[in-house]
C-alpha cells in the first residue's frame, strides 16, 4: 500500500515522474458467472489486487525487481527456512503448485522477495549477491552472529551507507545495507 499512486498522480506519466511504481487502473466489471462471484482477476498472480477492491488492478509504471533467486542444494529447504525465516524473520511464501514440485522455497518481507531454487550441481554464489536494504543493521548483525553466521562489515566504499556481508545457510553471499 505504500507505493500506490498518491492523490494528484493518477495517470502513468505523473506517477512515473512522482517516483511511484504502481497506479490503480479499473478492470471491466464482470456481468455474470464465476468471475462475478469471485471478483475479477488480473493477469498478476499474487497480492497485486486489493481484496477490498476486486475490480481494480495495479499497473506497473516503473521498472522494478519482482524477486531475486538464489540457488540451494536439493533437499536443503529446512536449512533455508531456518536461515531466512528463523534468523532474518522473512515469511515463507507458498510456491505455486506447478513450481513446488521442483523443490526450493520462497520468502518475502517488506519489499523483499527471495526465491531459493534447487540446483543439482549446486555451488554457492561467493561474489554475486543481492544487496538488501535493512532497517536495523546492528540488530541483524547480532542475530546472525548469535546463530553462527559470519558478519563482515564494509568500510567507506559506498558513501552514505553502512553495510556488511554474510552468507546464508548454503554459503551464498548476501549484503545488507542501511543509509547513514
Automatic annotation (TrEMBL):
GO terms for molecular function: dioxygenase activity; lyase activity. Pfam families: Glyoxalase. Gene3D superfamilies: 2,3-Dihydroxybiphenyl 1,2-Dioxygenase, domain 1. Residues 64-179 form the VOC domain. InterPro entries: Glyas_Bleomycin-R_OHBP_Dase, Glyas_Fos-R_dOase_dom, VOC_core. It comes from the Bacteria. Keywords: Dioxygenase, Lyase, Oxidoreductase. PANTHER family: FAMILY PROTEIN, PUTATIVE (AFU_ORTHOLOGUE AFUA_3G15060)-RELATED. This is Catechol 2,3-dioxygenase-like lactoylglutathione lyase family enzyme. It comes from Asanoa ferruginea.
